Every structure is written in structure tokens, then in C-alpha cells.
Amino acid sequence: MKNVFKFFGLSALLMCFALFAGSAAAQSSTTGSIEGTVTDANGAAVPGVSVRVTSPNLISAQTATTDNTGRYRVLNLPPGKYNVTVEADKGFAKFERGEVEVNLSRTSTVEIQLQPAGAQATVTVTDTSGAAVDVSGTTTGSNVSTEQFSNFPTQRTVQGLYTIAPTVTRSGLRDATGRDRDPSVAGSSGPENNYILDGVNVTDPAFGGSGANLPFEFVQEVEIKTGAYGPEYGRSTGGIFNVITKSGGNEFHGDIFGYGTTKGLVREVKNFPFTGSAFNGFSEADIGGDIGGPILKDKLWFFGAFNPQRRRNFYLTQTFHTPVENEVTIPFYAGKITWAVNSRNTFTASTFGDFTKIDGFLATAALNNVNGFGDDITAFEGRQETGGHNYAFRLNSTITNNFIAEISGGLHFQRANTIPRAVDQPLIADNFAVLRNGTVLTPVSTGVNANDLSICPNNPTPNANGFVDPRSQCVGTGFIEFV
User: What's the rounded Cα separation, in Å, for the pair 13 and 5?
Assistant: First the structure.
């Protein structure tokens, strides 16, 4: 069994390489845009005016010149809050508008009306309407920025943010730490979604679902597409979840955070399932920090983050409610370099990882397919290894005001290893076994006739290996005996 699970881990890695090779040209957009019309006080178009946009998230200021109809468009903008400026020129006063929201894959509209220079020196408009509405697209979904989700009472990983969008609900799937994962979009199952982090497709190539996760302190914005998205995304009959990590800036900034939960703060199990182990609380330590800033102002930025998490899960098994536990460790990390090659080209390189190790009772692993019922609990213990690391490289180029290029590539490495703990006893699978006074009796000494027993309602298969439940005198499945 050990060799089988190791082979599966290697094959999952090889499938990741195939996924990368086949999907390099179908990456999601990592930027947004601003567009609009420049007019005078009478509503006439003003051509030949330079519109400048700046933001703490934009390494180099971007400009666009209005055409004969007064239209302008500034492309390849990372998500964030922007200032839009038109300098005093051609007899017009200076125009400024701040707090313009730019979201992933969306176009924000800013209409500019210039006033005569003699009216006032500067016209300043403050946008207080919140997120911009993209009237140029038909895609349904939501965009959530770091300023918003930092104040949400939600789980602290990016997976916990996905259910914010309409039609997105919990699927019942959970990760190793018990947090929700792989939500359902409009009734689809979790594995039907497509997951993209920093332009890298991190969808699990073996089982579907997300093959990577991050704490939301590492994240700048989450884009959730629930319908009417373009065919370039593909690989999804559910939703598209597009995530961009934070970048540095011209000023140093950072955070230090810590969270903790003790077992005494978590309620004990009240309703015990007839089959399978019962979750019986946890304790958790979750600390980390991030820092970003300039290496060269307006030229080269960096961002780095590290968040080690350690969690201990407690369970009660089917064998006399024996208490067992496991320990989950996840050293989350992320890093990014942003380089302004020139005013029209920006190169970004990023990496992130979520190596996860579960050591102890494998409550959700394939080893536990007999529901944790056996005379040797160590038979259901082992080590499970998931997660991996990712690398993304991207060049965003503005060739003309109407023509841009986004050239990107990435690698997604993912492991899926289940390694059972060594058991030195030979394995016997009994047709029937009886528990009497805490002792497992062999089938030949029980005197029980299988034809006289009824089948348990939740185990309707009479020809499976089973045990006799002394509480109901019915046959249940899946008893493993070690002798």
C-alpha cells in the first residue's frame, strides 16, 4: 500500500507539467483599465488632451491622449485606488479625481469635464461611490479588494472569500485545517471550478478543485466569475476564481499578525455518527508577517510574506470512542518582484507555496476507508502531504493606446502523498466479528449465524465484510482485525 500511494504522488506531479504545457496561452487577466471621455463645459469633445493616472500600486505613472472624439483609455493597470489627472492646458483648468477603483479584468469609467482656466485653478472630484461598475462587459460575478475583505468576518484563507459572490455557496468540502474549500457555483460541484493565482492555473490536475491556497494577508484582490465569461478561460463548468497577490510600493509597508485558539474554546462533539470518526475540537497557532517596499523607487519593488500555521485536530473513533489526533503544519509563503522596464513595459515575477503535512490519525485519507473501526487504531495513522510551490512570470506591455500585450508563464508543482504508518501485525479481514465485553471474538467461536442477522440501514450490502453491532444486533461493514 505504501508504494501505491507514493506512486500516485509522483504521477500527480507529472500531470501538473502536462497541465502547464497545455494551458500557458489561456491565463486570466491580471490587470484592469480606466476609460472615458474628456469634454468642455458645453459638452463638446476635447481632443489631444493628456490624461495621467497614478496609484500606490502602479510602479510607473501611465498616460493616454484623447482622440478626435475625446475618448481615452489607460490599460494594463494593476488593481487598486487611482488618481486621474489632466494638467492645465489649452485654456482649461487642472482636473483631478481621486479614489477611482480599478478591479481585475474590469474597466472603470471616468468622465472628465474641463472648466475654463479663468473659472478656478483646479477642479477636484472625490469619488465616494465605491467599486466601479463595468458597463463594457457581461460577465457576472464580484471583485473583492484587500481593503474590503480585511474587515470581513470570514475564514482567513483566500478560499474563504469565494462564497462572497452571488450564486456561490459552500460545497461541504474542507481542507486539512477544517476550513471551507472548493465552493459550489450555481449548483456545480467544487471540482468543476477553475482556480488561477497570479496568472498560474493551480487547479488540481488529478481530482479537480483548488491545488493551492493562501492567507488573505498575501492577497491584493480576488475576482470571482460566475457566468458569461469568455472561452479563453476554459477548463470550467462552474466558476473562475482569479487571485492576484500584493506587490511592493514606493514606501515601505508591512504587517505582523497572530491568531490562536485553544481546545477549551471549541465545543466537544455532541452528535456521534454511526460510521466514521467524529471531530472533537482543535487547537491552533497562526502567526506571520509581510513586508513590501522599493529597491529602487519608481523602478524596482519587492514584497515578501511568511505565515506558518500549526493546528492539532482531535477525533473520537468508532472503536469505543477512542480519542485520536493529528497535527497539521502549513508554512505559507509568498514573494514578488516588480520591475518597470520603461514607462510602457512592466515585468513581474512571483512565487508562493502552501506545503501541507498531516501527521497522525488520517481522518480524511484513503487509508481510513474502513471508518476508523478496528482493534488497532494505529492502522489508521500515517502522514499525508499535499500542497506545493508555484512560480509566475509576466510582462505587461502597452504598445499603443488600443493595443496591449500580456505575456505570461508559470509552473505549478503539487504533491499528493499518503504514507501509512508501519504496522508489524498481519492483517485479517473477517467476514463477521463480534465484540463481547470489549473483546473481539473470532468468527468460528461466536456461534452467530449470519442468516439470522439483519442488515444495518446505513450498510445495506450483505456480502461485504462486516462486524456485529451489539447495540442493534445488525451487520455493519468494514471491520479489520490484526493478530
Answer: 13
End-to-end CA distance of the chain: 19
Contact 48, 64 (CB under 8 A): no
Where would I find the beta strands (DSSP E) of 343-446?
345-353, 356-361, 381-387, 389-400, 403-412, 415-420, 427-428, 434-436, 439-441
Q: How many residues does the chain have?
A: 483
Average pLDDT over residues 230-259: 86
Instruction: In whole angstroms, give the CA distance from residue 156 to residue 100.
Output: 27
Three-class SS of residue 167?
A: coil
What is the Cα–Cα distance from 140 to 150, expressed in whole angstroms?
23
d(CA 468, CA 435): 7
DSSP E strands in 8-131: the ranges are: 32-39, 50-54, 62-65, 71-77, 80-86, 94-102, 107-109, 112-113, 122-126
Provide the 3-class DSSP secondary structure of residue 338: strand
Number of other CB atoms surrounding residue 463 within 10 Å: 7
- For 261-271, what is each residue's pLDDT tens digit? 998 888 777 77
Q: What is the pLDDT of residues 352-375, one digit of tens each?
A: 999 999 999 887 654 444 455 666
Give how far the C-alpha of residue 148 lies from the chain's centroid of Cα atoms, to the nearest Å.
17
pLDDT at site 455: 46
Separation of CA 473 from chain center: 46
Side chain identity at 426, as an amino acid letter? P
Helix (H) or strand (E) holding 307: strand 300-316
Question: Which runs of E-coded beta strand occur in 228-299?
Answer: 240-245, 253-261, 278-296
pLDDT of residue 145: 83
The rounded distance, in Å, linking the Cα atoms of 26 and 262 is 44
